[in-house]
């Protein structure tokens, strides 16, 4: 158990021995959390643990949550689909009231949340963790209907399974094209790990096939490590074209499985995986906490939305400066918000904001890479802690790469247990 977690649990014990008026205020408080993923489920679980008398309700439409992290390994055939699934019985056992419904609207003035069945939940504090929505038609020709032909698979579920079926049906010697958006978007290393996992599948089953990555950026997370790993494991199977190589896609023809770049180059795919630009999940927009970027600017010390008091936004929907949109970051943010709310509701000093992130990526079995960073709140914003970034060395040996792969698998198992008890 970490020092910070021990101190917050100790604070909860002190609060329970505090004057009755403080206990009564905490007991009367209702915190509603929207979204049962890495950020929301973490916030709900840890708030109930740190402030047992607070009523905590988690609103999540899915009875089983499938994670985007490690879904690339499903595409590769290295994990089963059900290994990505997580239920909510563990949170119920922890005392969280779990409601399977869709959050439809927020009335900030009345502090109510409207659910898909018409019910209204009254909240004293609201935590939003709605993840992402896709910006349909940000790429000309790519709308919801187009995704049925050219899946994005950037929300784990039916789209992920569709992409896998298309890979299985693709003839050997076919071309898999992936389009990659400019920053910011969910999981910055995700497209490049996906390229490696698709290549792993092709190497086993369709060795004459090729992968073309058309990227709206010139640089990306762990670029040198990915390029090195692709070459070492897959030779020339993967070709990456960045912004300077005319890699930015402007138009998509999902019927023909063709894309056109901003400079007019056309590419035809056997399988077309379009990862479009993204924005915060719909309920964040309905709550009025997004800005012109489509994301939610938050206060660095507690992830409270800058546009509305009493609403905290964690995970991919938030814009948190240099912190990436990752499962690790969302989990970290959820714990901080839980600690901050527990302290506020129990009349205790607020915890000092400190954050961390680690992103593991698998290039092939026994070949992992990673990057990590530490962050703090400064003048109301999240900033990098100087000299805190750590990244796998380019000259690492096979044993190091194998250890990184094992660390990544252990991280997924540990964080899944931490959040969902599985």
Automatic annotation (TrEMBL):
**Signal peptide, first to last residue:** 1-26
Superkingdom of source: Bacteria
Keyword Signal in record: yes
Q: What is this protein called?
A: Cytochrome C
Database matches in InterPro entries: FAD/NAD-bd_sf, FAD/NAD-binding_dom, FAD/NAD-linked_Rdtase_dimer_sf, FCSD_central, FlavoCytC_S_DH_flav-bd, FlavoCytC_S_DH_flav-bd_sf, SQRD
Q: Where is the Flavocytochrome c sulphide dehydrogenase flavin-binding domain?
A: 351-420
Q: Which residues form the FAD/NAD(P)-binding domain?
A: 30-142
Q: Which UniProt keywords apply?
A: FAD, Flavoprotein, Signal
GO terms, molecular function: flavin adenine dinucleotide binding; oxidoreductase activity
Per the UniProt record, the lineage of the source organism begins with: Bacteria, Pseudomonadati, Pseudomonadota, Betaproteobacteria, Burkholderiales
Give start and end of each Sulfide dehydrogenase [flavocytochrome c] flavoprotein chain central domain.
160-276
| Keyword Flavoprotein (UniProt) | yes
């Amino acid at each position: 158990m970490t020092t910070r977690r021990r101190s917050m649990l100790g604070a909860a014990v002190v609060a329970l021995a505090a004057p009755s008026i403080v206990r009564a205020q905490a007991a009367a408080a209702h915190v509603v959390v929207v979204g049962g993923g890495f950020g929301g489920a973490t916030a709900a679980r840890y708030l109930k643990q740190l402030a047992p008398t607070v009523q905590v309700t988690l609103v999540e439409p899915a009875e089983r949550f499938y994670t985007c992290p490690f879904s690339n390994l499903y595409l590769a055939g290295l994990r089963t689909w059900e290994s990505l699934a997580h239920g909510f019985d563990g949170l119920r056992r922890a005392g969280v009231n779990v409601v399977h419904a869709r959050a439809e609207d927020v009335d900030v003035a009345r502090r109510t949340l409207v659910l898909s069945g018409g019910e209204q939940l009254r909240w004293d504090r609201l935590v939003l963790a709605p993840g992402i929505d896709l910006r349909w038609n940000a790429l000309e020709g790519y709308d919801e209907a187009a995704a049925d032909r050219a899946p994005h698979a950037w929300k784990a579920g039916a789209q992920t399974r569709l992409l896998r079926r298309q890979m299985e049906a693709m003839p050997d010697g076919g071309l898999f094209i992936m389009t990659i958006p400019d920053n910011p978007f969910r999981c910055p290393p995700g497209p490049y790990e996906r390229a490696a996992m698709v290549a792993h599948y092709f190497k086993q089953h369709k060795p004459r096939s090729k992968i073309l990555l058309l990227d709206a950026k010139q640089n990306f997370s762990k670029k040198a490590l990915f390029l090195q790993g692709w070459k070492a494991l897959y030779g020339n199977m993967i070709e990456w074209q960045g912004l300077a190589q005319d890699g930015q896609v402007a138009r998509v023809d999902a019927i023909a499985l063709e894309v056109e770049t901003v400079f007019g180059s056309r590419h035809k795919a056997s399988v077309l995986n379009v990862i479009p630009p993204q924005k915060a999940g719909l309920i964040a927009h309905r709550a009025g906490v997004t800005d012109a970027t489509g994301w939610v600017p938050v206060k660095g010390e507690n992830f409270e939305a800058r546009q509305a008091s009493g609403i905290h936004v964690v995970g991919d929907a938030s814009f948190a400066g240099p912190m990436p949109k990752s499962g690790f970051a969302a989990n970290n943010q959820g714990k901080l918000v839980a600690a901050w709310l527990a302290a506020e509701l129990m009349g205790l000093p607020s915890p000092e904001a400190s954050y961390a992130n680690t992103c593991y990526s698998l290039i092939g079995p026994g070949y992992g890479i990673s990057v990590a960073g530490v962050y703090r709140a400064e003048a109301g914003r999240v900033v990098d802690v100087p000299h805190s970034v750590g990244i796998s060395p380019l000259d690492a040996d096979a044993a190091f790469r194998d250890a990184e792969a094992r660390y990544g698998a252990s991280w997924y198992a540990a964080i899944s247990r931490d959040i969902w008890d599985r």
